[in-house]
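Hi U.,

Before I forget, here's the chain from the pilot set. I'm dumping it here mostly so it's searchable later in email.
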Amino acid sequence: MTPIRWGMSHRPDVILVHGLWHQPAHFDRLTAVLRAHGIGVHVPRLHRGSLTNDTAAVQSVVDALPVPPVVLGHSYGGSVITGLDRVRHLVYVAAFVPAVGENGALLGGTGALVNDAVRRNTDGTTSIPAEHARGLLYADCTESLSAWASGLLVPQQPGHGRGVPQRVAWTNVESTYVKCVSADMRSCP
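Structure:
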């Protein structure tokens, strides 16, 4: 894979799109590194009630920028960025990449490891208990970093994973997929 290189005058901003149960603060460390290198970074908050609303929230950030941005989506954020228009490059990090008519719930499937850890709360939201987050979400993190990230997790309204993107941007936008594998895995499919 060839690294993406842009001149200083043409360097696009970066938009970071978090996944379910996550929030913009989960990207704080990455945001600080990118900004230290002079890159404009935007991290919109999702959980706006549906995939359509989440995509619209990110699209409004895209539309406010003078140059099409690079957009990174993590997990559910991949479904969100798939529906965007006027972007320069899509980066999927351990993310859903739905095709026409697909949704994250379909792609994750009933056998997804996270399914057994999801707590259904009395207010209709779901959450990932901190005691399960390290093994499921932060297996390669230090204990303190895992505790920090687990402490940032937020409840999730139902239905986000069932939305189908209105467009499938990766079919005509240069895209990169980053597959994350736990260090303790001996092999990967």
